[in-house]
Amino acid sequence: MKHRATTGSRAGRTSRLGLTALVTLALVVSGTGSVASGEPGDAAEQVTPTPATVQLPEQDGPDEAPAPAVEEEVPALEEPASVLEEQAPTVEEQAPTVEQQVPAADPTAPTAERAPVAPVPATGAGTAGATARSVAPSAVPGASGTSAVITVQVGGDRTAAATVGPLAGVRLRLHDGGAAGPASPVSGSWATCVSDAQGECSFVVPQTQQAVYRNGECTVWFLGCWSYEQVLVSPAGVNRDRQFWVVQESAPAGWYSNPALVTGVPGSLRSTPYVARTGRELRAGSTYAAATTTMDGSSGDNLTATGGRWQVSRANPRLPQTCDAGIDVALVLDLSGSVAEAGAVGDLKASAIAFAEALEGTGSRLSLFTFAQNAPRSSSAAGRNYPELMPVDGNLATIRSRISSYTASGGTNWDRGIHQVAQDGQSFDLAIVITDGMATYSGSPAAGPGNVTRLVETEQAIFSANALKARGTRVLAVGVGDGMEGEALNLRAVSGPTAYVPGTPAGAADHVQTGWRELAGLLETLAKGATCQATITVDKVAEPYGGTPGPGAGWTFAATRTAGSGTLTANGPQVTGPTGTVGYTVQFTRPDATAATVRLEERISPAQRSEGWDLSGLTCTANGRPLTVTRTGDGTTVRVAVGDDVTCTFTNTQTREPGVEILKQAWDAPSAAELAGARELSPGSAVTSGSTVTWTYTVRNTGQTPLSDVVVTDDQGVVVRCPRADLAVGDHMVCTGSGPVNPRP
Fold first, then answer.
1. Fold of the 533-654 domain
2. How many C-beta atoms surround the C-beta of residue 121 within 10 A?
3. Which residue range or ranges hold the VWFA domain (predicted)?
4. How are beta strands 286-290 and 148-153 bridged, if at all?
5. What is the distance between the alpha carbons of residues 448 and 441, in angstroms, rounded to a whole number?
6. With contact defined as beta carbons under 8 Å apart, do 509 and 476 qualify?
7. CA neighbor of 4 nearest in space, from 174, 216, 220, 228
8. Which of 143, 356, 403, 713 is most buried, with most CB under 10 Å away?
9. Closest CA to 446 of 456, 433, 435, 432
10. Backbone phi, then psi, for 330, in 5-degree steps?
11. Across the strands, what pairs with 409?
């Protein structure tokens, strides 16, 4: 006997049709009821009028891909009158391949499920192959029928231009939260993971199984039951298709995390949290390789594009603990086009030369590296590397010439700029990376947008910086100009968490933000700090009486170390020249040496004091930050540590003591015009009452300062007239006045 097969069309019922798209069947002849493991709408073949129990096991093999949910019931065949053979087929005949399986409709799944993303390769290359951060499904060997696995690859040191080694010991946690970002952490031990030796951090998420239904009453009958009502036996797991955020909780010893990185375009840079959001599908028996996402695997501006490995930064090594032999430095210069656009190529070259000059006399050696879109920027003298460590002493002219030949053009590739130093066969104590903008390229050959900074560009630079630090090289990242304003998160990520703060030794900093005009002075300070030096500068300001303050020449100063460590050079008295400055250097033997206490004193000569000069002001700064100054006598004491740049300003003001002498004389003359030949009237002389007498007042400037607006007033009511109002030092004038002589009452 033959039967014609039909399909059901009502929601909540299963079409009973012999289709090659069925998963492996196990037919069990039983009574009127049947049970199915799956979702409503699973297709099960009916070969006799008698109802049969049909079990649809979950896929759990490594070769079986999880079936995506469908949005409608199984469609009818193109030929509804297909005929099945009367005899029941064997189990082998009923079992189709995985490719033939038709997924069951999942009532708990979203109605607009996005297509799964291909598994993310864990190569760490992350250059041209950067993807928007997403989670892709793949088979899990030996996976549970109720759990799914989310795996995050954690990267450490770059091992080659396109590969990154694993990092163990990074602790991650799942968080709840919507599209806006992570919210509260998920409780339960399964919600945390720690990366293993392969860099894999895996969350085994329970309760991700599908719902289980059984066949109820027959709803479509024609010479046998073709469709059954589906009755829920057990619901889907609470975590099935649940979305999480992945957040880093801690890093292993010797490493630090970067909770956020800067992304965007110049003028519109922003801090972007470094987190990962899982995809909309999470189902038992599957693993999902997280490529770290912030916005559910997509972003309109693609700022969250990533290389596929979670980044963590290696701690910055310390400088050598001895200063006897100088240091070996790699100076890494950004020669990208933005430096030229800012008109700062000259500033960059002058600053690099000043840095080299500050190393003179320390026994240090210097290498030059350049980068722009690629590294080096070019193979010509305008942008080539000079990787060989050259002693600064005796070679300054060569170093100046090489730096002076550089020009700037192209994009910015931090990754290659740093990794070329790590690849060099030499060992460096310190690498100073000077850049004027965020990375817009990575890898070799360079790949990237060129005009925007995404997560991937900085990720790759972090891995390269890790490789350089692994060689024992301390990395100092210097951001210069407008392109590096705002948060220094990316500089921090490739160097270390300690920012340079004015008033602290520059040598202790991991990263610095500064302007082009300040760069040269900063690099000089860095050079001295890196070579265990400290500098003391005395600025002399002289303010003459009635004049304008300016540099004071011819003033004597002395410096003496009174406590602490270090050797003070120029220990004897020094005299200021036309610039009004004298300088001292304290050379230490260790970077962590005890600070020196130095007494600075001005020695004012007797001649200067007689001219009215005196110390009127004394201020000091250390690394640009004001110090509290306690003046004792004509000097003060300062504390000087390794790398400090101390400046003290002594201001002297000239004051003049005024002095005046007046000699009053009486003359037998009726007016000042008739004084010639007149007889002086001595005190006590007899004069006829009512006669007119003329008095003279000889006014002499006996002080140290000129006199102005001189007015003579006679307390006898005589009107006194003077030929002028000003008197220079030592000068005199004669004033006159006339009036009648009256007897005293």
1. Immunoglobulin-like (2.60.40)
2. 16
3. 328-526
4. parallel
5. 4
6. yes
7. 220
8. 356
9. 456
10. -105, 115
11. none
Nearest residue to 615 via CA among 565, 648, 650:
650
φ, ψ of residue 170 to 5 degrees: the values are -85, 130
Is domain 323-528 given the CATH code 3.30.70.3090 in the classification? no
Q: How many residues does the chain have?
A: 745
Residue 607, SS3?
A: helix
pLDDT of residue 671: 93
- Given a contact cutoff of 8 angstroms between Cβ atoms, the answer to whether 492 and 483 are in contact is no
**CATH topology agreement for domains 323-528 and 533-654:** no
Spatial neighbors of 61 by CB under 8 A, at least 6 apart, are 139
| pLDDT, tens digit, 9 for 90 and up, residues 448-503 | 999 999 999 999 999 999 999 999 999 999 999 887 877 899 999 999 999 988 76
Q: Report the distance separating Cα 267 and Cα 264, nearest Å.
A: 8
Residue among 705, 701, 699, 694 nearest 730 (CA) = 701
pLDDT tens digit string along 177-193? 999 999 999 999 999 99
**C-alpha torsion 138→139→143→148, nearest 10:** 20
* Structure tokens given for 49: 């009028």
CA–CA separation, 11 and 411 (whole Å):
58
Of 111-125, 196-210, 245-259, 397-411, minimum mean pLDDT range:
111-125
Q: Are 371 and 334 in contact (CB under 8 A)?
A: yes
Q: Are strands 581-587 and 533-543 parallel, antiparallel or unpaired?
A: antiparallel
Q: Residue 295, exposed/middle/buried by CB under 10 A (0-12, 13-18, 19+)?
A: middle
**Stronger pLDDT, 439 or 643, i.e. the higher one:** 439
Q: Go through 283-293 and write b for each residue having 16 or more CB atoms within 10 A of its CB, e for each that does not.
A: bbbbbbbbbbb
Nearest to 416 by CA among 437, 447, 453: 447
- Which of 63, 72, 105, 108 has its CA nearest to residue 207? 108
Strand, helix or coil for residue 123:
coil
The C-alpha angle with vertex 595 and arms to 590 and 601, in degrees rounded to 5, equals 130
Note if the pTM is more than 0.70.
no
Helix H or strand E segment including 567: strand 567-568
CB 726 within 8 A of CB 706: yes
Structure tokens at 451: 């005009």
CA atoms of 32 and 454, how far apart (whole Å): 61
pLDDT tens readout for residues 280-301: 999 999 999 865 444 333 343 5
Spatial distance between the Cα atoms of 382 and 368, rounded to a whole number of angstroms: 12
Number of H helices, E strands in the chain: 9, 46
- Bond prior to 273 in cis (omega within 30° of 0): no
**Distance (Å, whole) CA 598 – CA 561:** 4
Asked if 473 and 421 count as a contact pair (C-beta separation under 8 A), the reply is yes
208-264 pLDDT, tens digit per residue, is 999 999 999 999 999 999 999 999 999 999 999 999 999 999 999 999 999 999 999
Alpha helices in 578-709 (DSSP H): 606-610
User: Is the link from the previous residue into 49 a cis peptide, with omega within 30 of 0?
Assistant: no
CA angle 721, 727, 730 (to 5 degrees): 125
CB atoms inside a 10 Å sphere around CB 727:
20
CA distance 376 to 355: 20
Domain boundaries, the chain: 131-210+240-313, 323-528, 533-654, 660-740
| β-sheet bridge partners, residue 499 | 511
Say whether pLDDT at 26 is over 90. no
Q: Which of 54-68, 512-526, 551-565, 607-621 has the lowest mean pLDDT?
A: 54-68
User: pLDDT at residue 573 above 80?
Assistant: yes
